[in-house]
Target: Inositol monophosphatase
Amino acid sequence: MTGFPIPDIDRVSDLIRSVARTEIMPYFQKLDASGIRQKTGPTDLVTLADEAAERALAPALSALLPGSRVIGEEAASEDERVLDRIHGDDPVWIIDPVDGTINFAQGRPMFAVIVALACKGETVAGWIHDPVDGRMATAVKGQGAWLDGRRVHVAPAVPLPQMVGALSTRFCAEEMSRQLEERSAGLGERACLSSAAQEYLRLLEGRAHYSLYHRLMPWDHAAGVLLHAEAGGHSALIDGTPYRPGLLQGSILLAPDRDSWQALHGQLFG
Model:
């Protein structure tokens, strides 16, 4: 599958837990304005915890896999050329140190750490860790998805009016936003958590059936898409092509299976 040995999954999990415990949780519900700043606007924030966690994770992950490189969300926000590493031949760690930074900054316990390992534009392993309740989701390509040591599967397929999930209109064109708002009325309850990681965990736990996202930054989706696929789910861009972590634009739809995906796609975009 790869030209390199994937580091021990539990060892990576322990590292993520340790960094979350020492670099993220001490700031939770203790930040003041001086510990939060805007990057590109009022909904694009970075905190001291984001920066501290990425500084700790990047060298530690690299040490687990000699020759690997790192793409961190905060490093990429400072230099977009960091993203080019995903297209190289070296294995690449992709880090979102605090996914759901808005929630974190407001003291809401809806955030998580996301780590993916990719090579030549393909995700081969992924981790999502909720530092508040301790949940850890892991997957290696071809080996299933696991949550706290238990193999997990996506929710069974249900009719469209019973499908619950996260449908974001953020980052999509105004016309598409209007269409989605209108057509999603035929679906079940929408629950957008302002954290892709938390929404992926809901899919893995079978508490949601679908998610729709736009602007596909790799630190938000590389791990989650792999975890969802390894749990039996089906996903694709809305033009039907497969997701790859090097894609930055487009919209991705995730569903319990191919038939459900096609039904959702027809409802929302047909």
Summary: The first strand starts at residue 36 and ends at 41.
